[in-house]
């Protein structure tokens, strides 16, 4: 029984061991044996950057298989594979070759800086699987991974998460040195180029030549601040590095402006980023310009990008005062009737000057000769603090004679409409030989003085205020009324005298009844008038 019990235990333990081994094989195959491209969206698998025992064995077999396809150390061109990749492991430099005229991949095309590692294998391999994101050892991620052999890939510098803004910046700054566990790290623009342009089957040769990086030399990179969390070469449109400051230009570094004039401090200033887009919104300006004060001012323009890159330039602005003040409210022409009342206070009433933003009300002078009837010249003068002087001449018309107002000789009107102001205004003419007639001052009043009589008073002045007045009496002529039509009285008809014969013997006229309708021809022949009856009885 004990033997049988032990036997069952052994058999059970063996079964469990088989299950465990099977699980390990499946897990190992899942991690290291994937052959189809995937885009990682979770952390359920990983690719080891180091060369494990299994990886080394697979690498060796793969290398020997690819080497048998070369000819005298050269790889003939495959029309389906446009490029050949050469990795100098010792120099950390990648060179891309394309087809040469000799039919081999012999024409250097592109060089890339890289970081290899302690377990990067030497040999000749070919690209197989591709991944947009790939989980790596240490629970980090690489972009645009292309499998070279086993667990060795081309990929970007690692990211802490599957987020383009979560780069291991310190690792990026190690590009060009040994830094990986075994994979070949590249800038995003380079590993994406391989991802996009080198299909599965592309030959990858890994070798050592520390003294000679490659026919195109080894590119360099600039270290980026540790606060930068994007690969500067990532072509993603969201990459903040696309807004790196590239240039800052000032069209005029020295300008002179007039005191009090407008100054646009950003005019002529252009800042651009690495994509040649304007980033003027990022310009910071230190210093100010007081446009109302003569002097020399300096403005410093600085533009910075997200990662600390900056450019600064200085602009000098000189404020000068070469223009005199400008008069305000000075009349171009002044009309006056009494020169004795035309004093300096009158001439300066409301007059002032501006100089930039300064308002000048005192210090204004006005000069003139003795006023005479007619046109006179008055001169205004003012100076600013810089000694700039401005003069202005105005005309003063002296006129103490009222306009001449002439009335129409026709004093009759035939309709009340002729008493309107518009109609009455046509009855006068006005003239003035000096300052001129101010037609807007015309006033007309019409008063009925009795019956058909109207008194009209006209008043008008010239521009010096001299008033002319005239009046007239108009008669409204009303047409005579025609005689009324008399209704004729009924005419008295006088009876004609009877014939002599009838007069001797008066005729007896039978009364006749009113006729209601016209007699017919038949009744006329049957009936006779009273005269006929009387005549037939004789």
Summarize this structure as a short list of keywords or feature phrases:
28 strands, 9-stranded mixed β-sheet, disordered C terminus, disordered N terminus, alpha+beta, about 15% helix, about 550 residues, single chain, 4-stranded mixed β-sheet
Q: What would you say this structure looks like, in words?
A:
This protein has helices at 2-32, 53-67, 169-172, 188-197, 344-347, 421-425, 500-504, 521-526, 530-537; strands at 83-88, 93-98, 107-115, 123-126, 130-136, 140-149, 152-156, 184-186, 203-207, 245-250, 254-258, 269-273, 283-286, 295-304, 310-320, 326-328, 333-336, 352-355, 358-360, 365-368, 374-383, 389-398, 404-407, 412-413, 428-431, 437-450, 453-462, 467-476. It is an alpha+beta fold and 538 residues long. The strands form 7 sheets. Strands 4-9-1-2-3-8-7-6-5 form a 9-stranded mixed β-sheet. The chain is elongated and about 135 Å long.
């Amino acid at each position: 029984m004990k033997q049988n019990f032990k036997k069952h235990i052994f058999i059970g333990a063996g079964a469990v061991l088989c299950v465990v081994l099977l699980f390990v094989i499946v897990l190992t195959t899942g991690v290291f044996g994937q052959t189809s491209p995937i885009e990682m969206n979770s952390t359920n698998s990983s690719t080891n950057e180091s060369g494990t025992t299994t990886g080394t064995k697979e690498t060796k077999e793969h290398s020997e298989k690819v080497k048998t396809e070369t000819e005298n150390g050269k790889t003939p061109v495959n029309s389906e594979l446009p490029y050949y990749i050469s990795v100098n492991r010792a120099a950390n430099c990648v060179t891309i070759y394309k087809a040469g005229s000799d039919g081999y991949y012999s024409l250097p095309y592109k060089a890339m800086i890289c970081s290899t590692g302690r377990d990067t294998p030497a040999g000749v391999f070919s690209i197989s699987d591709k991944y947009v994101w790939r989980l790596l050892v240490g629970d980090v991620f690489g972009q645009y991974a292309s499998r070279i052999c086993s667990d060795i890939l081309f990929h970007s510098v690692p990211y802490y998460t599957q987020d383009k803004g979560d780069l291991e910046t310190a690792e990026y700054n190690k590009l060009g040195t040994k830094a990986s566990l075994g994979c070949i790290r590249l800038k995003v623009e380079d590993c994406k180029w391989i991802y996009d342009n080198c299909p599965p089957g592309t030959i990858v040769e890994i070798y050592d030549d520390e003294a000679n990086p490659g026919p195109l030399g080894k590119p360099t990179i600039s270290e980026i601040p540790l606060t930068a969390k994007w690969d500067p070469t990532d072509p993603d449109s969201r990459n903040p590095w696309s807004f790196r400051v590239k240039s800052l230009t000032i069209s005029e570094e020295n300008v002179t402006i007039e005191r009090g004039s407008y100054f646009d401090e950003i005019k002529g200033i252009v800042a651009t980023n690495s994509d040649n887009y304007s980033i003027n919104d990022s310009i910071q300006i230190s210093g100010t310009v007081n446009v109302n004060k003569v002097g020399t001012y300096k403005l410093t323009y600085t533009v910075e990008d997200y990662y600390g890159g900056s450019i600064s330039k200085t602009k000098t602005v000189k404020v000068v005062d070469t223009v005199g003040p400008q008069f305000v409210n000075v009349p171009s022409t002044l009309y006056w009737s009494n020169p004795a009342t035309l004093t300096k206070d009158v001439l300066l009433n409301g007059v002032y000057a501006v100089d930039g933003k300064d308002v000048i009300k005192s210090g204004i002078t006005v000069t003139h000769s003795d006023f005479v009837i007619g046109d006179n010249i008055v001169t205004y003068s003012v100076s600013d603090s810089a000694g700039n002087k401005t003069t202005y001449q105005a005309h003063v018309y002296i006129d103490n004679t009222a306009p001449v107002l002439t009335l129409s000789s026709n004093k009759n009107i035939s309709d009340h409409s002729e008493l309107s102001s518009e109609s009455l205004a046509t009855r006068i003419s006005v003239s003035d030989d000096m300052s001129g007639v101010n037609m807007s001052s015309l006033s007309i009043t019409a008063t009925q003085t009795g019956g058909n009589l109207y008194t009209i008073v006209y008043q008008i002045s010239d521009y010096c205020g001299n008033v002319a007045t005239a009046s007239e009496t108009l008669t409204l002529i009303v047409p005579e009324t025609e005689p009324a039509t008399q209704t004729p009285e009924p005419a008295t008809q006088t009876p004609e005298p009877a014939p002599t014969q009838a007069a001797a013997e008066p005729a007896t006229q039978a009364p006749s009844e009113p006729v209601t309708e016209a007699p017919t021809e038949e009744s006329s022949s049957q009936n006779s008038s009273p005269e006929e009856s009387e005549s037939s009885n004789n």
